[in-house]
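Following the same procedure, the fold was encoded as tokens, giving this record:
***
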Amino acid sequence: MRSTVLVNGNPRKGISVEVLPAYGTAALIIAVFLVHVISRKFDPFAPIWMFLVGYVQIYVFQAINYHDWAMQVRGPKMIMTANLRALWALALFLVVYHCGFPKLLSKRLPNPPTKWSTGIVCLITPFLFIWGSISAGLISRGGGGDVTPEGALLASFPFVMLVAAALLIVTGQSGEKHRPAFTALGLLMGAFYILVWMFNGKRSHSLMGVLVTVCAFYISRLRRPSWPVLISTAFAGALAVSIAIGWRFERQHGRDSSEFLTFLSEFDMATILRNMNIEGDDGTKGPISHETEEYGAWLVIMTAVPSMSEYDYGASYLRIFSTFIPRIIWPSKPYFGREQWINAWIAGSEYKRDSTFTGPAIGIHGATHLNGGAWGTAIVFTCVALFLRTAYDYFRLYGHVPWVQAWWSVFFFNAWFMVVTDDPLVWFYYNWGFTSMPFITLLWFVNKWGGASGDVPVAAYSA
């Protein structure tokens, strides 16, 4: 990358050494991908790929495209340190992920239920669809101050509609007896979810809709999608994200369905590259700060911690437990980790911030640096790699079991959330722990001990 930036007031031209580790990160990701493809071990539903998709967006595309801005604001030493950390942390993640130990752990986990009750699926999916529709409707009408606390709570569970779609697809295709009506209804529900959340302007939900629907469809058939299907899926996901972002910030049109259709008819496909950080800014808008995007936010945290602000030492992860304790029982319940997060932003930002600042996600590296710097990064990346690979090996062991298929289809994409949000466990206590886990757990017990249908025949998952 050639650039001209001001470093200590002096112009600097040529290839920027500080960005080379970002290219090294890209090369490492490409090498891992090629090894999996050549060895015929590539499985698009392995969590490593969702992890790497988020990683390449932030620590390759953003690191390269925002380099000039970062050099002016943070300086070459900070940029080199950050980019090198992204490289060695990824290498550590890959070593742990492929070390073989997680497979031993997965074999020691409880066996899943081998039966699948169509009756419980028929019972709960209409409820989940209606609940998800109510949540989506409240949000699409604006919500905010016009919604009661009870209404706001009710609207916090939109993902249950997608859980219902996955259950229907799995029910339609698992076992010896296929049920095309279940499959068709599940696919329609998944498509409806994607459309609703593009209209609501939520990129994450739109992308989740694409991923869950495709995953449930293929793994319940014990198959992998072809390369044309994978390419189409990647394009559909990027398109859904870009439409959601564009419609959210669109101000020339109204907010009803007819205006949304008009927006779609005029949609500029070139915005996909910008929204995915593949294409940089054109510079026509003048100087732009990127500190409210993940890579820039990470640099804010690195600037502030620990010289101007304190580590949180993983305090945010206590929300795994505290989130499930209602405030009516614990009125003074703290928002663990929030104080350190805000203090770091106030200390390290380019701008004047105060305690009311509600900035964006800081990405996995911002979170792990806040946890404890380089050591915090090494520890968390090791744990994340162990967790994701153990979960995947468990899926591989029991990929023919409908319960496992349902669980994996609504779980695997969380590897992406681990990279792009405020900390690697946000996916659990802000979405999955409330919307998926209760129903997946319910299905475990119903199918383990209830009057379910016969055992599903064992068949290998082709991956």
Remarks:
- The first strand starts at residue 2 and ends at 7.
